[in-house]
Hints:
The protein is α/β, with parallel strands linked by helices. It has helices spanning 44-52, 74-84, 100-110, 116-122, 138-151, 168-185, 196-199, and strands spanning 2-11, 18-28, 33-37, 59-64, 67-68, 85-89, 156-160, 188-193, 204-209, 212-218. The strands form two sheets. A six-stranded mixed beta sheet has the order 6-7-8-3-9-10, with helices on both faces. Helix 4 runs antiparallel to helix 5 (138-151). The chain is globular and about 50 Å long. The two termini are 31 Å apart. The mean pLDDT is 92.
Amino acid sequence: MIKIKNISKYYGDKENRIQVLKNISLEIEDGDFAVILGASGSGKSTLLNVMSGLEYPDEGEVVYNKDDITKLSDGELTEFRKNNTGFIFQQYYLLPNMTAGKNVKMGAELAANTDYMEIIKAVGLEDKKDKYPSALSGGEQQRVAIARALAKRPKVLFMDEPTGALDETTGRSVLDYIMKLQKEKGLTSVMVTHNANIAETANTVIKMNSGEIVEIIKNTNQKTAYEIGW
């Protein structure tokens, strides 16, 4: 379980200081698929970054089971992310001088995972493993990014607008794959989006506005990626 306790985050100095997160408290259950929903500037990506250990909060705690990661040093926090979390972003962040297979292998090596080829097969890219990112479509590059994140065998998967740069057909396919993997592997997954339709696929929806959580919805009627509007 992830427990967020009274988190606040500021950017800027003195008269330019802006509070981006305002005393947020939240719990994410193990195996949950949670979506953080809000407009641009609502603080949702900052919350994701703080929750995942990419950034420190200015106030509050982020507790994984019994461990408060806000108390960790930079080096300890890097080790925590390496051992516990995976990330998928709107931008693919693939290494252009490595093939698709080697990009995934790089993630696998962080977890001493020798079965990364199974993940490449699972995302449907076995025949593209020797191609470089520049030779892949946007959807294929995103699937490489997904495979790389999963090859780390993360306990928690964090996603920031993973379908935001994709067309509808490819976006639905990628979202469908993410949802299937989440259920099959029992991953705790947290996704940021501004798309209220995508939020209908989650079992927990966290609505944000102006740095605050305004509503948390437990969705008992999750839709598939092909049932939602786009």
